[in-house]
Amino acid sequence: MSQQQFPLTRPQLAESLVQSALGRLLGTPVTAVESLAGSVDNQDFMIRTGTGDFVFKAGEARSLAVEAWACEQVRTAGVRSSEVVALELDHAVLPAAFLLLRSLPGAGLDPTAHPAFIDAGRELRLVHSLPANGYGCIRHNPGEIAGPHGSWAHFVAEPLDCLAELISNSVIDDGLALRLDSALRQYGDAVRFEHPGVLLHGDLKAAHVFAEGNRFVGLIDWGDVSVGDPMYDLARFSIVGAEPLADLLTGYGLTMDAELSVRFAVYRLIRMTLTLRDELRAGGDWFASYRATIESDLALLG
Predict the structure, then answer these.
(1) What is the pLDDT of residues 81-130, one digit of tens each?
(2) Fewest Cβ atoms nearer than 10 Å: which of 45, 116, 125, 182?
(3) How far apart are CA 71 and CA 58, in angstroms?
(4) pLDDT digits over 251-264, tens only?
């Protein structure tokens, strides 16, 4: 079967254009515009000015609106995170929708033990105290910001629905798809969650935990904010490694046990399969590392 083609959605804004437009918007000269890694569907820059630094994200308007909403929700609840400076969705300032955030001091952490992960665990527990509507990755529809599913069970079934798409585009082979299908069905009870959903970061990793020295500064990058089981957030973070996870769980108030280990493994399978699908649809090609995590967890589950 021939590969299905998906269009690239990443904006392509010239740095000079961003520099002049944001100088006018901020009312102060922009001294430098530095490209950031971003994602397959965002174009990101660090904006330097004499009065402070800012993070600029250009991308799909609905996704940026959700991220801005999430930043405001968690900051209102007392979670340390980036302040929204501007959200422009109508292309009046630049030929793309964009979100402008005040940059936090410090830097994202490496995937090794660090005292700031303990504080991050405490902050994450606060995030998970916030109710939200629906289940799954939050979408912005007119008049509503909510997860697209009516239950958590519908969300965790998503990977089974996209296996054929991944096979037809040569992202995974038939054998891996069969093993994934078998594991997700066999261990479905491990990810059963029949409670009201709470706000989730959606993509918590070491680089999204900011620290200045040993001091925790905040959680960044709410572009995958979701609704559902808090353990899904912790399982995503567990990919970082055992030592950072131990620190985060200490702050969160949880102890790893055999049942939680299995739950994390199944959630990692779900997360990595959906990430393969999203990477494919966005035109990216970072498949190997996600497949490696899937293989590791399939081996762990036996």
Answers:
(1) 999 999 999 999 999 999 999 999 999 999 999 999 999 999 999 999 99
(2) 182
(3) 16
(4) 999 999 999 999 99
On the 0-12 / 13-18 / 19+ scale of CB atoms within 10 A, 200 is: buried
Q: Give the distance, in angstroms, between the CA of residue 193 and the centroid of all CA atoms in the same chain.
A: 20
Cα 141 to chain centroid, rounded? 19
Cβ-proximal residues to 271 (8 Å cutoff; 6+ apart), any chain: 232, 235, 236
25's enclosing H/E stretch is helix 15-26
Q: Tokens 């405001």: give the residue.
A: 72
Angle made by CA atoms 72, 78, 81, in degrees to the nearest 5: 55
| H or E stretch at 211 | strand 209-212
Place of tokens 């059963």: 192
**Distance from C-alpha of 138 to C-alpha of 133, rounded to nearest angstrom:** 9
Cα dihedral angle (214, 199, 260, 179), rounded to 10 degrees? Answer: -110
What is the per-residue pLDDT across 206-252, written as a single tens digit (0 to 9) for each? 999 999 999 999 999 999 999 999 999 999 999 999 999 999 999 99
Residues 95/89, Cβ–Cβ less than 8 Å: no
d(CA 121, CA 248) in angstroms, rounded, equals 4
Q: Contact, 216 vs 80, CB < 8 A?
A: yes
State phi, psi for 77 to the nearest 5 degrees. -80, -5
144, 150, 153, 154 alpha-carbon torsion, rounded to 10°: -80
